[in-house]
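Morning!

As promised:
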Amino acid sequence: MSELIYKSAAQLSESLAKKEVSAREVTQAHLDQIAKVDKAVQAFLFVDTEGALAQADQVDAARAKGENLGPLAGVPLALKDILAQEGIPTTCGSKILAGWRPPYSATVVKKLRAAGVVILGKTNMDEFAMGSSTENSAFGTTQNPWDLKRIPGGSGGGSAAALAAFEAPLAIGSDTGGSIRQPAALTGTVGVKPTYGGVSRYGVVAFSSSLDQVGPCARTVLDTALLHEVIAGHDDYDATSINAPTPPVVAAAKRADVKGMKIGVIKELSGDGYESGVSERFEESLEILRSQGATIEMVSCPNFDYGLAAYYLIAPSEASSNLARFDAMRYGLRVGDDGSRSAEEVMSMTRAAGFGREVKRRIILGTYALSAGYYDAYYGSAQKVRTLITQDFAKAFSSVDVLVSPTTPTVAFPIGEKSNDPVAMYLSDVATIPVNLAGVAAMSLPAGLSEGLPVGFQIIAPAMKDDRLYQVGAALERELAAKWGGVLTTKAPKLISAAGA
Amino acid sequence: MSRISNEEVARIAQLARLDLSANEIAELAGEMEAILGAVARVQEAAKSDVVPTSHPLALVNVTRPDVVRPGLTPANALSGAPASEDDRFRVPQILGEEA
């Protein structure tokens, strides 16, 4: 049954519908793979073996009764630990939430369950999604399945590594500045940040509320689209949720046609600072799109140069406010409550003990940027940059259908290389951040390898035109897979056992 | 970029309810200077005629019908509490009274 783990969600869906295989068999095959390789990869923080098998049995029983099931019923999924799942440990990668079992589920979790998707467990991440490597997790670093000495990207490194290690065919991520797309790029997988407001955030631990967006991850463009369709849509539990139909993402992935499309290459997201292997794979992908009938032109977005700076003011500012909810009163850690200390002292001691270095760094940075006397110079200026970046996108999209760039300037770097240099680490997200600032939609998909490590190709579409990501992405993927003899992850090292742990 | 003093970081930490050690404060003071030095360039682009953007999606007055729907039971709501008493969250003293 080990062959089951190498199948796409779409292939599993077909075999399940024809009853060639049961949801229990599919789920067990993935649980076996987790048992075999996760000591080395450390993608999961919690594996819900019993719960997953029970969900699979429910799907099998429903199918036996002839019930009408959705396309992903019985297909397993890895859930980023930023989403609340009732009764299942939810830590967000932080000690302050260790042991917490939420009394309710996120809307996305409810939608997955309703679609019959089998949730295998919770994946590792940088604490409160603050990071680009998973090294900021309070529970250890996830290893990149392509090279276990390297980071898998972050914050959603656990979800991306689970896909590349064939521990799950589907995963959920969240993307505030690139936390879905950067790990996808570094692990040779596909990840989409939907339009801001396209997927409910109810039950998702908030990092930076004007930037956060939940999205789908998988190994193929079509699988990502199938998952996108399940999780997207309006939710009246989320006041920032868009009340409009979800763009036709699955149909677009199946159409996979770029003939006559205009594709803009973002001048500011190339050249200096981008590794030559990354630039070469990017250029080859452009050539493929051109040969498929797309028109390629250069587009300038001059204010993107200020994107990183604006992001590292806006995100910490909003985080410093959002993380005020961790006050040691209603849930999570409490330290120093000995009867003599005040609530304020207990709060300060708990937060000092429960938050890691990067989280403290960003709370201090954000509190500073919002404090009296500095607000206009920092937070206010960053908000103006946000307007300029949004205007750059609007101008670009008036002449092209989608924009493209490399997803990241480099391939996966060695564990430890940047962990003591916050500014160097922040540069990992230079190409993904403008998308979040403007709230538009973007995908990263594999463009090939550079010295044996995956390179990501980023596609950006206007708000609520998420379908264009899939239309372009699937066309590129088809041509690249034909060249490689399968999608990129088929070339990933087969992790036979826990070797390398 | 002027030097950010340890005292300033300590004051910010107090506002943020973070009981940081002297070592952490000294370390953060140095890091803040490096990070603020890198991000202060937003000021170059932020001309006075640019309108600030707080949010990418201009939704206003989002409401839903005011109907009763099930919420958490007291037992559920208290299930993750560090301490509870009589169906309530128990918190440390809040007014500085004698314990």
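Chain A is about 40% helix and 15% strand.

Hope this helps with the figure draft.
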